[in-house]
Design a protein that fits this description.
249 residues; 7 strands; 8 helices; single chain; alpha/beta; Rossmann fold
Length: 249
């Protein structure tokens, strides 16, 4: 039986943990050759071993344009093409920062990864992308909400949603589809660390979700693969919420 991503080349930023790692494993199991980035070399090497199937790790930060160049230079050297980009790398501010407490440094850090980094992750991939390839951006339900004390994060994810609309029109002549997967609260190591230090917050999260629980990274990853595959061939410029119904209900 043919696998969905047999002979496909996939690049995932921030692929050494969480949703990125879960997606990398699924892509690899479906036949893809997967390239992942991560900032910490030790964790990146562990992730490559977990993914198996010929996965390649390229150490780097998505906000560093030279690191992105190294990623795509490696893919160019190895294969000369790219079929899927999952622009997954992103950060959040674990502290609540209302409008009056936002700093220039905080703005630059968060927008540097979530907006600037995502833009150049995609732009620098363009010369390698095949006609009919797919780009998936990692958004968030925060892009459609006004979570208090998180206006920088909320706005950065709203920008991701806007990118998908504009880039769909920019790339339509090449037949490259751009879509956004927008998770709700997901059981990643980062989220678990945040919840475990804030008694009562996890229960508040669950009460806001009709399905009554956090999502699992694999559940988000399956949506990523759908948007990257031919199964979604008539879906472009869309945002797929994977959030247990918290936006819809």
């Amino acid at each position: 039986m043919t696998k969905r991503f047999e002979n496909k080349i996939v690049a995932i930023t921030g692929g050494s943990e969480g949703i990125g790692l879960a997606s990398a494993k699924l892509f690899a199991n479906e036949g893809a050759t997967v390239y992942i980035t991560g900032r910490r070399e030790g964790r990146l090497n562990e992730a490559v071993r977990e993914i198996g199937n010929g996965a390649v790790g390229v150490q780097g930060d998505a906000s560093n344009l030279a690191d992105l160049d190294r990623l795509y230079e490696r893919i160019q050297r190895d294969h000369g093409r790219l079929d899927v980009v999952f622009a997954n790398a992103g950060i959040a501010d674990v502290e609540s920062r209302p409008l009056g407490a936002i700093t220039e440094e905080g703005f630059d850090r968060l927008f540097g990864v979530n907006v600037r980094g995502m833009l150049f992750t995609v732009q620098k991939a363009l010369p390698l992308l095949s006609a009919g390839s797919a780009i998936v951006l990692n958004g968030s339900v925060a892009g459609s909400k006004g979570f208090p004390g998180q206006s920088l994060y909320n706005a950065s994810k709203a920008a991701v949603r806007s990118f998908a609309r504009s880039w769909t029109t920019d790339l339509k002549e090449r037949g490259i589809r751009v879509n956004v997967v927008s998770p709700g609260g997901t059981e990643t190591a980062l989220m678990r660390g945040y919840l475990d230090t804030r008694p009562g917050v996890e229960e508040m999260f669950k009460q806001a979700v009709p399905l009554g629980r956090l999502g699992q990274p694999d559940e988000i990853a399956r949506a990523v693969l759908f948007l990257a595959s031919s199964e979604s061939s008539y879906i472009a410029g869309a945002e797929l919420y994977v959030d247990g119904g918290s936006i819809a209900v």
